[in-house]
Amino acid sequence: MGNVICGTGMFVPDNVVTNEDLSRIMDTSDDWITTRTGVKERRFVDPGTGSSDLAVEAGRRAMTDAGIGPGDVGLLVTATMTPDHLAPGIAGPVQVGLGLGNVAAFDIRQQCSGFLYALDLADAMIASGRVEVAVVVGAEVHAGFQPWSRESWDAVLGRSMSVDQADYARNSRYRSWSVIFGDGAGALVMRRGEREDEGLLATSLHTDGTGFELIWVPGVGFKERPYVSHEQIDQDAHLPRMDGGSLFRSAVRAMPEAAREVAARAGVKIEEIDIVVAHQANDRILEGVRRQFELSPEKVPSNIGSYGNTTAATLPILYHELRETGRVGPGKLVCFAVFGAGAHYGAALYREPPGRRA
Ligand code: ACO
User: Fold this and answer.
1) Pocket test for ligand 1, best of 176, 216, 309 (most atoms within 8 A of CB)
2) Can you say how many angstroms the Cα of residue 307 is from the centroid of all Cα atoms in its chain?
3) Least packed by Cβ within 10 Å: which of 158, 253, 283, 357?
């Protein structure tokens, strides 16, 4: 039986940062960011707010949407690459925040593909009969990754109009990835399905470990003693390194490949897919996916302009918005597709149950 999504929710922080705001603190422009990525603005949390806080809010909204209470939930899976602490992960605080009691709760660390991995695990746990209902959340707080000083943050948030030369130079050095990311969370509730021809029909998960360094954080890890040191921080080893071009090419290849695989497995043609809910890393990657499948922008929608790349949260945020606006509704065939750090990638095919509200 295909397990069914019966509720969704999202939550993004209030601070909106536009491309113009970023151009106050680094050598960039609205034109460059818009044409190269499609991002117009993104959200950032205030200090003291973690991915668990966003996850609780998104999870609560999904549970309300599903019409369920904490006692109905048997499993919580949280996907994040930006946990509140290095250890343990955010599943515990999110479980407490949602009032779930001592049900199984764990983190998935598959970055941009995290939500799909989490969904597949929840689906497998439900299919095996171990739980009836699962909450799956993707949440990220990338603000802490930004190399920006307090003065730069003040300028980005409009509290001042410029930064000194040293900050400007440092911020510009990291401009290729810092302009892409944003904070947010999305969640869904999955319950046991009743029919074979609806719900989650097929999933394919892949990892190309040779792409480990395409985007990664080289320092602050347990190969070092101690695992974090002043030296590492001075060398900016706690900041991400990204080979944008290689990621770009891999994403355009991998997402369609995984989508074809699930379509073949479920016995459907690509043309039968109503909508592709793809990871939101770059609008031009989405264009590449559209070109390969000859699908219109409506069929491979984008919301990257509003939120940037929210890593594990992009899929559930976009899916929630499409559901709220009625673009996914009864009987529609949805293809989820992801690619990201790891390099993990995959796809899933989902048939919306008939009769569900649009
Ligand atoms: N503003 C202005 N100029 C910039 C900026 C910026 N923000 N960033 C880079 N540039 C400059 C570069 O310095 C370079 O200048 P040069 O020609 O003088 O050397 C020029 O623009 C072109 O740089 P490229 O890196 O070739 O630009 P590209 O078109 O490849 O776009 C980008 C870069 C946006 C990063 C793109 O490669 C991309 O989106 N790749 C995929 C990234 C991705 O998927 N990341 C996340 C996946 S994993 C995860 O989410 C956890």
Assistant:
1) 176
2) 11
3) 357
